[in-house]
Design brief:
With 413 residues, the protein is an alpha+beta fold. The protein has seven helices and 19 strands. The chain starts with 6 loop residues before the first strand and ends in a 22-residue tail after the last strand. It comes from Eiseniibacteriota bacterium.
Amino acid sequence: MLESPHVCAPYRPRRRNHSEARRFTRSRLPRWLTAATAVALTLLLSAPAAHAQRLRPWIPPAADSMLAWSAEARAGFQTNRGDSIGGSNYEPYERVGFMARRLLRSLGRANLTQAAAVESYLDSLGLDTDLRVEARLPYFALLVVRNPYRPAAKAVAFLLWYRQEELKTQGFELSGGYEPRLRVWWTNRQEGPYAWGILDASRDRATLYFSLLQLSANGQFWHLVQFDTEGIPFAPTGDAAFADLNGDSKPEFLVWTPAPLDSLVENCRDCPRLLEQRTFVERPRGFALLETRIVPSPTSTFIRFVQLLAQGDRASAARFLKDPRRIEAAVSAGWGLRRAHGSWKILATEPEAAWPLWLLARFHAPGGPRDYKFDFESDGSRWLIKGWERRAQLGGATDSTARRPAGTTPRKP
């Protein structure tokens, strides 16, 4: 999981092609700069502005040059060979990174939160980019550049950050390149005062990737600490986010995807699905999976309840009931006798409710199918079955949208 991707050098525009372009050079720190002053220097990165500034309309600088550079970048993307970013294939990505740096610099450090205007401008020039700013530390921005003519080609991420009043940039290859999310945080470590986490998805959203970088002590460049080439299983309906779960000002990240359903229970086509949550936390060598669990919901409570009954674990099943004494009624109904595939079928749930308070389910009993309405309530920490009642069989159809009770409407997909 800890592999080094292709790290890109800063873009150096050619003077012979564009007289307005200035060559990027790295300034060296004075010899008298000590470790203590280096830490103090990085602290300036997170210092909030003393006064909120009035927003002014932004006008892109050097519009003619931007138009010419974007045309060169598009031509370069069109003529790129293969999907890699090596060799001359990298040049159009580099050009777009240079353009974005110049545009962001025109906004000024205090106005970096207006970067959405820069993304819109780049897109209007026929480029394919995502531009994100760290809202908690609005001196860090992430630009992702993709080849607009080769959707399967590799993407390049450009890190942009202010070191005092200088806007610096550094590029590296992403494994996915779509729907980027970022989080930057203060580490309180002299050798790496800031850390930068990036989540990005594959184009088909089947895989999610994570990268972790650490800022050098002098604030000049980022070390790649963790680069995930295998990725995390994802889904078109999945989601992911950074969150500070334990209040230590350092993030974890969470990934939500549909969970597989136990064969004992069939779910209706439009009913809420089980949701699996994976939590990743920082370890000495990078982020690693801490736990995987099913997100509590009425559906998950029902499924776990009938699973435990089928396993003969009455005591555990009773914990999912508001009135544990009703476990005897469940056993008397024969719910603990059937363990076959599809013994239960969820027919419908509360309409237009992602977290329904009731569901209709059919139990395939030995003497024939029986339909029940289950009601749920939350005690603040988990969902419980409040009760159930027998219902007349709903027509005998197998599709949930064809046998909803009167007065209900099908759930939207």
